Every structure is written in structure tokens, then in C-alpha cells.
């Protein structure tokens, strides 16, 4: 009889796994820059699904695009403020090449912008007089502590003391006051017993005495600020 020919064998791999992504900013990240990109990068080739349903809770003007070359969803939005945001990419936003839809992806992060600090001092003061100057601060989120330097002409002004400030009805006490160099003092403040203060107000009150003669002048400048 005729000999049997060997059968040709082959196998088919079944892919039933939904595509997954690495997100940015990372989940639970804090101190995120206001202009940080919001992306989700998938670990395999994907094609577009229901991208139009992506949301960022707390943000407006949200839209999304998929780069199939890099398998990356980039989410555009109107300008962030210093706040907490939650991104939700719904199930089915993309499909892998086997037709598996992505599962829902949701993550949150907190942004922080450049916080403005300024000295609110009178334009003029007479010789041998006292005056106060507030260290004003713009909007902060979950503020706990800070340190900053205050500089001035020590031949014109003498810093006698620094007293507590106020943000959103919360007292901001002064923990330490140290002279770094002549005319430059470092102020350290810490809000104890809270989970953080949000709002705006003033960090502290600077209490000065004018020791310079009439006609002399000095600026009062904050610098080297670190907030947490």
C-alpha cells in the first residue's frame, strides 16, 4: 500500500487579555506641575475605541488622542489649578490587535503651581519708627510647613520679631527665626496637628524698626522659599 504522509501540525495562540497601560502622572502623585502631560502608554499595539468618553474630574476642555505609533493616549485639557484631579479612561477606549477591549483605567493626582509670595510693606516710614510687613502668600493646597529668607538693608532696618500668619482661618506659627547673614533672616514655620491648610492669606508678620536716617531706603525681599 501507499505509505502515510506525516500530517502538518500547527497551533493557534489565543489572546484573551485586555491591554494594560502605564499612566502619567503616577497614581496618587503629589506636587505635580500644572503643565505636566497626562498620558496612558499601553504595553502592546492598540487601535482606537471610545476615546471621546475620557474624563478628568475637576477639569474642563478634556479631549484625547491616540498615537498608534507609540500606543499612547494623550489627554488634553484646559489649564490645571492647584487641586486634585481624577482621570477616568472608560472600558473600551482602545482595543488590542486581537480585539480585546481595554478595561477601565482610573487614577488620581494632585497638582501644585508656582505659589506667589510677596512682602506687603508701607511705601514710607519715618526715622526711629516701627512698622509691620505681611508675608503674603497666594493659593496653596495642603500646606504643612515652609521656610524662606527675608533680606533687607540692615543699616536702614532692624527686624525685631516675626509673628504668626493666617491662612484660611488657620494660624501659621513661627517655629524658628535665625539670622543667616547681616540683613538676611531665615523664617521656619510649621502647622502642627492638621492634615494641611488650603487657601491664601499671609504666612507671617515682620515687625521692623527704622534705624536709618531720613532719606535712606531699603527693599524687603523674600527668597529661597520651600513649601510642603
How would you sum up this structure in a few lines?
By secondary structure, the protein is mainly β.
CATH topology of the largest domain, what is it called? Immunoglobulin-like
N/C terminus separation = 88 Å
Biggest sheet character: 5 strands, antiparallel
Beta-strand residue fraction:
over 45%
- What is the name of the CATH class of the largest domain? Mainly Beta
Strand order of the largest sheet: 11-12-18-14-15
Note the run of SSEs as H and E.
EEEEEEEEEEEEEEEEEEE
State the total count of DSSP E strands.
19
Please give the share of residues in helix: under 10%
- Let me know the average pLDDT: 91
Structural class: mainly beta
> Are there runs of 5+ residues with pLDDT below 50, and where?
none
- Cα shape: rod-shaped
Q: Supply Rg.
A: 29 Å
Tell me the CATH architecture of the largest domain: Sandwich
Number of domains: 2
Q: Total number of helical segments? A: 0
List keywords for this structure.
single chain; 2 domains; Immunoglobulin-like; mainly beta; 5-stranded antiparallel sheet; 4-stranded antiparallel sheet; 228 residues; rod-shaped
Task: Write a structural description.
The chain has 228 residues and is mainly β. It folds into two domains: 91 residues, Immunoglobulin-like (Sandwich), CATH 2.60.40; 111 residues, Immunoglobulin-like (Sandwich). Strands 11-12-18-14-15 form a five-stranded antiparallel beta sheet, with no helix packed on it. A hairpin with a 2-residue loop joins strand 14 and strand 15. The radius of gyration is 29 Å and the shape is rod-shaped.
